TrEMBL record:
Signal sequence interval, chain numbering: none
Keyword Metal-binding set for record: no
Pfam family, one: RAMPs
Annotated ranges, domain CRISPR type III-associated protein: 11-300
Keywords: Antiviral defense
GO terms of biological process kind: defense response to virus
Species this chain originates from: Ectothiorhodospira mobilis
InterPro entries, sorted: CRISPR-assoc_RAMP_Cmr4, RAMP_III_fam
Lineage: superkingdom: Bacteria
Protein name: CRISPR-associated protein, Cmr4 family
Keyword Transit peptide: no
Length: 310
């Protein structure tokens, strides 16, 4: 169905709220999570909608290209879109550390899933997924305090996987962020401060390491807090890294409605959305607002596609 695909990293430059509706519990508005891992995720439908909205502002109605590639706005039976997005899976999570301020934490499960996605996109991953015992971490020695890694209120002993960690960190630093001086600090920190925890230990931070913000509804007449208007919103923290795929097919259309300038190469469709064509820009290495609370600066996501030559 899809003849072209590319690996894409999503880097949160602000707290991000991809909402999952309401929930019973202390958090009134939780974020989207996978059922089986409870890792935060960006659902494909939300990514596609945000990208379409962003490109609508950049492209307008030029040759109806947006409708041709993403599908019609109203009559879905007219034709299917030529671009598809996978769910974005959690790759690295910022966790407060005693040394270095914070670390980029990941786990074997997250690494294995990212490696699988990269393989689907034809991107080589010259590293192996390490095995990490519970209560241990693959970490460079400079982050240790009295021979222990301290994250939040927990301590972890270093394990014998530093060589493997370094190879993964270098690969991520090279591929996960766009080149340029504005991203150099974070790419270097990702290389130095990547920490690999066990799946069990990482799951704790993925479940309890989110930004929870209280919101208060203001009465329009009095200008003071409205009684009963307090609610709590969960956000993915800034500096989080997620990964997914963007896939493309040739343009779809009914036999008698083929446009004269139809894109009949899936690679060209993918390039139009990601890189643009010189006159209409793409989304590569741009900040795209995703999720709720955009008016308060939430959901600013840097999208970085990785080419096979990278």
């Amino acid at each position: 169905m899809f003849a072209a695909q590319q690996l894409v990293f999503y880097y949160a430059t602000s707290p991000a709220h991809m909402g999952a509706g309401t929930a019973v519990g202390a958090i009134d508005s939780p974020i989207q999570r996978e059922v089986h891992t409870q890792h935060p995720q960006f659902a494909a439908s939300g990514i596609k909608g945000a990208v379409r909205h962003h490109l609508h502002a950049l492209w307008g109605k030029t040759d109806h290209l947006l409708e041709r590639l993403f599908g019609p706005e109203t009559d879905a039976s007219e034709h299917a879109g030529a671009v598809a997005f996978s769910d974005a899976q959690l790759m690295c999570l910022p966790v407060r550390a005693l040394k270095g301020g914070f670390v980029y934490a990941t786990c074997p499960l997250a690494l294995a899933r990212a490696k699988r996605l990269a393989g689907m996109a034809g991107l080589p991953c010259p590293w192996e997924v390490p095995a990490i015992p519970d209560n241990q971490a693959a970490v460079r020695k400079e982050l240790l305090s009295q021979d222990r890694l301290v994250l939040e209120a927990f301590t972890f002993a270093p394990c014998e996987a530093e060589t493997g960690r370094q190879a993964i960190a270098e690969w991520l630093a090279r591929h996960a962020l766009p080149p340029g001086a504005e991203n150099a600090f974070f790419a270097e920190k990702l290389q130095k401060d990547l920490v690999i925890l066990s799946d069990t230990d990482f799951a704790h931070f993925a479940r309890h390491g989110m930004v929870v913000e209280p919101h208060v509804r203001i009465d329009d007449l009095s200008g003071t807090a409205d009684g009963g208007g307090l609610f709590y919103v969960e956000n993915l923290p800034p500096e989080s890294l997620l990964v997914g795929l963007v896939q493309a097919s040739v343009e779809r259309y009914k036999k008698d409605k083929k446009p004269e300038n139809a894109l009949e190469d899936a690679g060209e469709v993918l390039s139009r959305v990601l890189q643009g064509d010189g006159t209409l820009p793409g989304i590569a290495d741009r900040i795209v607002q995703m999720g709720g609370d955009g008016s308060t600066g939430r959901g600013l996501i840097l999208i970085h596609p990785v080419s096979r030559e990278a």
